[in-house]
Amino acid sequence: MEIIAQKNYPDGSVIFLEGSRGDSVYLVEAGAVIISKQVGGKKLIIDVLRTGEIFGEMAFIGNYPRTATARALGDTTLGVIDRESLTAAVTALPPDMRKLVMSLVSRLRKMTDTAAGMTILRKEPRVARTWSVTFSSGEGFSDAYTHNASSGGLFIATDKPLEQGEVFLLDLGLPDGSQLTKVACEVVWTREQTEDSRGFPTGMGVRFIVLTQQDKDKLRAALAGAL
Known about the structure:
The protein is α+β, with helices and mostly antiparallel strands.
């Protein structure tokens, strides 16, 4: 890898922001870099990179927007890796190997999003529960079921998960025959592929945005097995 430039960043300065475009790939030459994501309105620290580590490669290889924010931790020096040499190296790969690399990058991106989303949802204990749900989407109403739940959110097993960040209304059927209706939810993370459809089905992790105290009490009772 050829370093074509060096950039210096004072402590706390932004190297790039989550969601921004960019195809620069960096090598940490001195200092450190904090990688963080915004999930559910909260900043989660994903990793701290130190001397000798490379970052920014997912956006470069996959042509994605930046999946996280990078900030300098202490006075930091980064080497900018030559894009032309990287492009030539990726292009020179045999087609099957290039396809494998792209697949790995895509999978890593999804795993990062999933891990971050699960961190938010698991702030309250989750309980395995199978309850019927109905939610609205661009294609109308969809029937599905919960895989697990907490008083702060739940996982909906469905082969048609909504987009991460999408806000929607949910009807949730409880074991006593009652329903929580028009519960405002936000999609925190999704799982679109799985090798274990029983233990880890496709679907989406959601958090409750608006839930009345009465509904929250009913939900907690159901989670405790009182309903």
